[in-house]
Request: fold
Amino acid sequence: RLDDGGFMAVSRKCTHLGCTVPWVASEKKFICPCHSSVFDIRGSVVQSPAPRPLDMFAVMIENGIVKVDTNKKTKRSTFAQSQVVYL
Reply:
């Protein structure tokens, strides 16, 4: 859940070399333990070597339940506000 109350589901696969990128709550960032790429809560690159934002998954809200379709991954080049889903 984003600070503005919206929902967005980003892949945890680094866009540099495909490492798993964990969310580091104390830093409020996704940080790659292998090559030091850093992404913000929206998946945008904060620190290279990642060449682009984290991919995202389709999000739907049905009857107040947030659902993520992991079969529909979207490759992104930038963050757009339209990528956020609101209740």
